[in-house]
Amino acid sequence: LASVCTGCGRLVCAIVRMEEMRRQAAVSARDHIDAVRADYLKKAAEFGKLVGGGVRFFSEDLYSGTCQLIYLCKIWHSDEVSSSAKAFTLCSVITSGLCSAAGPLMAAIKFRHIDAGNYAEVAENMDDAKRKYKELVPDKEEEEAIETTEDQLKTRHGARILLVMASMLYWGTAAAVYFSADVTCGQALPTWTYVLFAVVTVCTVGLELFTLRSLAGKPLGRVDNLAMVMAVGFGRMGQFDSFSDAAGARIMQACAAEDPEFFSWFSVWGHKFPLPTDLGTLMTVGVVLIIVFQLLPGLVLLIGNFQLPVAMKMNELTIVLAAMENH
Questions:
Q1: Whole-structure pTM value
Q2: 278 with 262: CB under 8 angstroms?
């Protein structure tokens, strides 16, 4: 009997020690995954901004912004062009530079100075740390606790559908303006186009916030106020940029239709430079570039559940992207 009691006592002690070792290993693994995750989140978000913003800059804003700048220079001293039309084009050019040139540049600087190797290695470290932690703590609640916002979006189809809806509203507004607006050369856009843009941009903000509130871990609460303000601000600037590019294309097409020869050249300090064709045709090419290099890839990545940080930037879902950077 004494031997049996001694053996049982040793067995209990061994079980307790094993459980304590497992708990310590779990704590150590959790600390490790938190450290790896912090590095991964920042690098993934900056990678998305760098790639998505870079594609946007070269395929949309560099090309369209140059065309709009040429158009602005040609009509600036014209009395036939309304002041509101000039101001709209000027805002479009400024917005293109701020949200597309500055954004990728800042992301590239941050991405370069983030430690722990390149992005692929950090992502691999993150997957390995999560796998080891789940082996030590096979509990569903604990698994959800280490999930990032990106992980949750990949597995929660309802949340991703809301983001697809927001993207469709964003691109649908630009398409509605391009195909439906009755534009006259030198005149302001119809009032309904501005109202439509304002309503849609507010709706997209609401859909992003609602999506984040539906996720576990409260990712929205981890975004500080300054980051939230910047996310909302840059997101609206990005949406206005696409809206103004679509509207600018229609305006320049209307002007080029009235006088194709005048809008087929520009001058710098008295030197005249011919364009390959008139500005209206060039802007039509610009619209095609936006569709091929931004609209379609952005929606495919979002719907296909691949490279979500890049998809968020291409679709100007900046609030979700800010949350992904912090959780």
A1: 0.78
A2: no
